[in-house]
Write the C-alpha cells for this entry.
Amino acid sequence: MNTIQHIATALTLTLAAAASQAAGTLGLTPGNSTVNIGSSFAVQVSGNSFTDNVVGGGFNLGFNPAVLSLSSVAINTGVWEFVSSNGSTNNNNGTLSDVFFNSIRATLPTGSFDIATLTFSAKAAGSSLLTLSGSPDFPFANDLADVINVGFGTGSVTAVPEPATWLSLVLGMALLPMLRRRKAA
C-alpha cells in the first residue's frame, strides 16, 4: 500500500467511526401546552432515536418559578430498575438538578423509551420554558461504557386563568353600569 492509500483508509475509518457515534435526544411530551392557573399537569421526559443500548444517564431541568412549581418527579422503574434518583428540586430558582437512572437488565433500552414523569402546578399567569440539559455528573452511557452524544429538547407551558374567572370578570364589568344607575337614583 502506498501513502495515499493509507491516508484514504484512515480517513474512511475515521468518518465511519464518527458516523456511528452513539446518539439520541431527550424530549418532553407534551412539548407545548396551555394549563389553567391552580391546576396540576404532567410532563413526560423520554429518550428518542437512541442508536445504542442505554445503561443510564441523567438530566437537569430549568423552568420559570414565577409561573410553575415542580411537585414531583417519578422515574419509570419499569425501564430503570437498578439505581435512580429524583434529583434535587429548587422551586425558588426554578431548577431540577441531577436526576439520574440506570438499568442492568439483559435487554437494555434503545430507540425510544420513557424516563420520568414530572408533575407541575401552575402558580400564576404567564409562560415558562422547560429547558432540559445534561447532568455533568451523570452522562448517558451505552453498554460498552461509551458516552452517548445526547441532544436536549425544550418545551413551553402557558398558564391562563380558568374560564370561570374570565366569566366572573366579564359579568362584574357588565353589572357596573347598573350599580352606577342605582347609586345615582
